[in-house]
Amino acid sequence: MDPRGILKAFPKRKKIHTNPSSKALTKIPKREDREETGEWLSSLRAHVVPTGIGRARAELFENQIVQHGGQICPAQTPGVTHIVVDEGMDWERALRLLRLPQLPSGAQLVKSAWLSLCLQERRLVDTAAFSIFIPKRGINLLCLLLPVLKPISDDETSDGEETQVSSADLEALISGRYPTPLEGDEKLEVLAKAYSVQGDKWRALGYAKAINALKSFHKPVTSYQEAFSIPGIGKRMAEKIVEILESGHLRKLDHISESVPVLELFSNIWGAGTKTAQMWYHQGFRSLEDIRTQASLTSQQAIGLKHYDDFLDRMPREEASEIEQTVREAAQAFNSGLLCVACGSYRRGKATCGDVDVLLTHPDGRSHRGIFSRLLDSLRQQGFLTDDLVSQEENGQQQKYLGVCQLPGPGRRHRRLDIIVVPYCEFACALLYFTGSAHFNRSMRALAKTKGMSLSERALSTAVVRDTQGLKVGPGRVLPTPTEKDVFRLLGLPYREPAERDW
């Protein structure tokens, strides 16, 4: 494998994420002290934009900054002092690349020649000759033209507000046309996963949006022009799609960094996210045995490692049905009127399931109270629940348990199980949410937002007040939604059966 190709496709970056609430930056020491200690860049908090500079050179800059006491930060980090860009970069393109409407307070946009001179003279030189001026009216214009994008995570705000849905997604939701994904789009998903596990959130987000746009398109893509016409698909992404169409392969996959399989191996441990996987990799761990014998694990990660293979093995829906039945029988032993529904991929009719989500409620709106702890105790006494990941996670009036179960009998695997108890007035919205798919849910929330409404796992609200950036500042009025069909009706949509939501 060509190491230059790996470096170009999947650069490694050494970044230090600083605490925004940390104390003020230290003063630059005298020159002789700086040279003796090697910390003469201690007051520098920099972000290097690799576009134009080149990945390899940008990485060298970052290593030199850290070596001499400086810090590498994301561009949006409070306290960042300098954002370093290529010599030919203008302020408009820089802000577009950074996905920022304006620079953080106190940050300077400087040309890379400034950093080169600093390293050459071993001191922080004046930025006057290297600073890129940003006119105020330009900043205001960008505030209107550029969407404020967020790093890829849950793609939603804490109150369920959706931020990353394209017009193609909404068109597919409204039309009800089944998605027709590009044959071979799993190759794009491999790249998206590779960027994600390496912490390259923006590239991962770009691929994720492109994949969703393809899945939402009303017909199979057959040409470059057709791919490029889809909202969310840019020129370079369209070229990759055509490459897959013509050759059945994507050359970029040949240059995936050797770290990616290891990072994916680690991030598949329940409770270990991308950052933890990267930390373990940088500590020199390369196998699950390394993690088992050398890493410091949380209790959840230890459980995830113990049942690693079981959790990755998808269960047949018949097994998911047995798990649902076990929970239902235990719950109805306390109250026969309790409703128990398995959601997720099981309810969407999939042949296999990664885990099981069981939703519990009672039509009288009262009898669900107090059942949560008693049900868990009963399932533990049966030996059905073997490990607790999160014993109680409260969300308003909803209570959620995340754990591990095992059906009786030889050769049975340990399975992930979530049990959610909700009041009946929230049952329809919770049922919709926990049924999924995640992309279908995002599209539903985005549609609600276009109608001045807000949809979450708790309620559908109308007359919601939002600020100029679209963030919710007033909760609005909760609409009665006795059934899922009422949610669809109030959003102006025909009802979609669970099997129609698997996109």
From TrEMBL:
UniProt GO BP: DNA replication; double-strand break repair via nonhomologous end joining
Keyword Ribosomal protein: no
EC number from the UniProt entry: 2.7.7.7
Subcellular location: Nucleus
Active site: 240
Source species: Camelus dromedarius
Similarity field: Belongs to the DNA polymerase type-X family.
GO-annotated cellular components: nucleus
Catalytic reaction list: DNA(n) + a 2'-deoxyribonucleoside 5'-triphosphate = DNA(n+1) + diphosphate
Cofactor requirements of the protein: Mn(2+)
Entry keywords, A to Z: DNA damage, DNA repair, DNA replication, DNA synthesis, DNA-binding, DNA-directed DNA polymerase, Lyase, Manganese, Metal-binding, Nucleotidyltransferase, Nucleus, Transferase
Residue ranges constituting the BRCT domain according to the UniProt record: 36-132
Domain of life: Eukaryota
Subunit and interaction comment: Interacts with PCNA. Interacts with PAXX; promoting POLL recruitment to double-strand breaks (DSBs) and stimulation of the end-filling activity of POLL. Interacts with XRCC4; promoting POLL recruitment to double-strand breaks (DSBs) and stimulation of the end-filling activity of POLL. Interacts with NHEJ1/XLF; promoting POLL recruitment to double-strand breaks (DSBs) and stimulation of the end-filling activity of POLL.
Summary of the function given for this chain in its UniProt record: DNA polymerase that functions in several pathways of DNA repair. Involved in base excision repair (BER) responsible for repair of lesions that give rise to abasic (AP) sites in DNA. Also contributes to DNA double-strand break repair by non-homologous end joining and homologous recombination. Has both template-dependent and template-independent (terminal transferase) DNA polymerase activities. Has also a 5'-deoxyribose-5-phosphate lyase (dRP lyase) activity.
Enzyme category, top tier: transferase
GO molecular function: DNA binding; DNA-directed DNA polymerase activity; lyase activity; metal ion binding
Name of the protein in question: DNA polymerase
SMART domains: POLXc
